[in-house]
Design goal:
single chain; about 650 residues; alpha+beta; Rossmann fold; Isoleucyl-tRNA Synthetase, Domain 1; OB fold (Dihydrolipoamide Acetyltransferase, E2P); 6-stranded parallel beta sheet; 6-stranded antiparallel beta sheet; 20 helices; 27 strands; about 40% helix; binds ligand ME8
Amino acid sequence: MKNYITTPIYYVNGEAHIGHAYTTFIADTLSRHSRLMGNETYFLTGTDEHGQKIEEAAKKLNKPTQEFADEISATFKNLWDEFDISYDHFIRTTDEDHKHGVRVAFEKMVANGDIYKDFYEGNYCVSCETFFPESQLMEGGCCPDCGRATSIVKEESYFFRLSKYEKTLLDYYEAHPDFILPKSRRNEVISFVKGGLNDLSVTRTSFSWGVHLPKSLNEPKHVMYVWLDALLNYITALGYGGDEARMQFWPANIQLVGKDILRFHAIYWPAFLMSLNLPLPKHIAAHGWWTRDGEKMSKSKGNVVDPREVANHYGVENFRYFMMREVPFGQDGDFSQRALIDRMNSDLSNDLGNLLNRVIGMSEKYSAFVIDSSDVAQYHTREIDDAHTILDSLPHYLHELQLHRYLEELWKIFTIGNKAIEEHAPWVKMKEGRKDEALATVALVANLLAKASVMLHAVMPKTTATIADALGFEITTQTYTHLILTKGLLATFTIKKIPPLFPRVEEPLMQEAPKAMREEQPLVVEIPKMDDKKTTTVSPEGLITIDQFFQTSLKIGTVLNAQEVPKSTKLLKLHVDLGEETPRQIIAGIREYYSAQSLIGTQVCVVANLKPAKLMGMLSEGMLLAAKDSEGLCLIRPSTSRRAGSSIG
Ligand code: ME8
């Protein structure tokens, strides 16, 4: 099966906030799940770069518009790359092949008789790039969507015959009850269309930052209305109007949007597609808003939460889990660190983390890290059956995009596991000499963890890969088929001991003040300096020999404890296990990037043979390896956990 999944393309009038991250996380989750099931999947995201709003934002900064768009578009792409978003294509509406595709579509609409020329006069909101009829304006002529002042615009314009599609659209909604998800949003679209559709002005002459009309029309003053240009990205990304090989992914399966732009996607977009004789997407799915103190978060209001900051402090996958688990799809949610911490401590640390630790611990004690599933069927069919009743119900929630329910149900698998351990108390059975029974319970729980990890994989890809690695298997389409579809067990597990995956978080880790209000401080990483006199000679080309390299002892360390250094904004005091008798004390200048709490239990790379130095009166017995660029600093860590003291090189 082919599965095409899209996010909106985001405006480049400011950097991404957690609202954008939310849509993108959901699309990434659906795409990863689809791939895991073996479907041919295409996941599209990108940036929307034309229109008066962008032109004005660039002007304010005295920058050429293209340069401004390049910069902001790159911040979105970099963030998604940093978050490991598995998009197949990142489209920009300033891409030449997109502009070409838009012109081809426009010509086709003209040829179909759906476009005509006239004059437009109306109240235009630049921020929303939308005309509003007088009747919809708020007091003082303000925009009903964003509350800003609108201005009267009269200009020559081409129009799209939206009114012609009124009845066809209503018939379509009727015949496809799950075209708009959640279903609760369907009525609002239907009543809007029933209220009557005016033809849509689809070109502008008042500014020039947009796709120019096809040469055949000889209208150099006109540029395309930004929403026509933007919506068409979903097909130009597949090569529409050019190399159309990827058009086989059309129609899209799920087009995710925020509720703010549902009207554009559920009314204009289908009408454009009908005009182009293309099939409509299967679902337009609109989620709610993330608010801050009850207000919609938006770039223009400046009340945004920075997703990178949340991810740096709490971990991107914990953050992702939280967003999907906390708020029912379609409803609004208020972002709070407290709610995130509660989810991490109760769901991740208590339910999932503890269960994993218990399996690892018991396998170490009772069976030298090897778990055999041979006796599970004899002692635990009930638990396995219960788990499969839950697993069987999951596709339904995914189909309805009820991700919070999906996760809520999935978590019941951990409850079954934790309960089995309490009820069957393997440690008692071991004492009583009933080793087979004890080991069967451990194997039951290992299998439950394996099954649940497979189903959690799309939400927390790296975390579940680490869990699978600790249990000695890999999450693939084959293991999905075996563990979930054919309800199989893994015959044996060879367990790896790993540090706790979800250390508890006690206090909020981020400062509450919005980003813009915080004092920017330059980073000075205070690290012990090499003793100059001891530095070995380096060749004129700056090359060193392998022996010189090996004079540096690099080791993996596990952070046992971490604290803020009083009176320092930059330093953290860590105690790091390097596999030696006593842990090392290391003073690191990383406080602006990492909270003390988030480091405990994690692994770092340490320069272990530096001459100890004193920082703010405290002895530092090593240095952490980190990478730093204009975006910030990140610690270098092993990709899977290693024994403390393992040498690097
Ligand atoms: O509308 N809560 O771009 P945009 C949840 N370029 N999601 C939010 C959000 C919030 N507070 N704020 C934004 C545009 N979003 C057009 C789209 S598509 C052809 C053109 C998410 O940068 C949500 O998905 O304003 C919303 O629909 C989208 O970002 C709007 O991003």
